[in-house]
């Protein structure tokens, strides 16, 4: 499957289950949860606005005994405690799994190059993919995610869904050895590489700053940067991006995400993958589950909530505004949830 936003056409290299060619997913707005500053507005935006957004990426943890936390849990119950409810909602439908990587399958670490996945988690994902079509949807490029996950049975959607490839091995839907490709922003590659070099040059003197090239997007990590230098870092990013109106900046967990200013996000990636499997927006025989921990995952949560084709599960140990229905506190609970799905399927 090859998608092309320029021509708004999808060319089928392989047919989906129902034999039809998936149409390009409709654009999905990110809503009020994600702070996005389009490039054409960045030039007049105050640096303090960007810095405030940076601070917002690491809110103060509240006690589990606080009234706010208790109220939030009531509104967003644990996916483990509500497992039977989730299974009931999926009755008679095909479950499709979507999983973020950092903070979901692996813990958040100071060095993004060392966000290793536990062998027990890898086995849990492998087992789930035996029974349910499974996709890893990450802000990282596919090559990096695959290097961490090392599973050929799953779909990979890197660069926030701007680079999608199918599994190298066959799985449940019997589409063996088939390739699926979607790169709606491939014309931006030279520009991304150019900006990457400029950002590295500008930020190399800021201790702890790290610029990561994720092929179709860039990540400026500031987790290890002294907060006193956030204004300086934000100013460097702004000064470079003002020359690139086709790029935009958004906020992740202790990271500034720079990507092409096109209407494409993880929500669009979910729609594209579901259609590739034969489930369009009107299908009522699919139940998608998206598990993620970051603001960028909210686009996918919103798609599933609006389409009523599944549920989002937010991985968080403290209250957040979210479009997810359920929660899990940490990757360990994600692993347990995946194991319970496998146990349920094997017990059928």
UniProtKB/TrEMBL annotation:
The keyword Hydrolase applies. Its cofactor is a divalent metal cation. InterPro entries: HAD-like_sf (IPR036412), HAD-SF_hydro_IIB (IPR006379), HAD_sf (IPR023214), OTSB-like (IPR044651), Trehalose_PPase (IPR003337). It catalyses: alpha,alpha-trehalose 6-phosphate + H2O = alpha,alpha-trehalose + phosphate. It comes from the Eukaryota. GO terms for biological process: trehalose biosynthetic process. Its EC number is 3.1.3.12. Pathway: Glycan biosynthesis; trehalose biosynthesis. Keywords: Hydrolase, Stress response. One of its GO terms (molecular function) is trehalose-phosphatase activity. Removes the phosphate from trehalose 6-phosphate to produce free trehalose. Trehalose accumulation in plant may improve abiotic stress tolerance. Belongs to the trehalose phosphatase family. This is Trehalose 6-phosphate phosphatase. It comes from Lithospermum erythrorhizon. The lineage of its organism: Eukaryota, Viridiplantae, Streptophyta, Embryophyta, Tracheophyta.
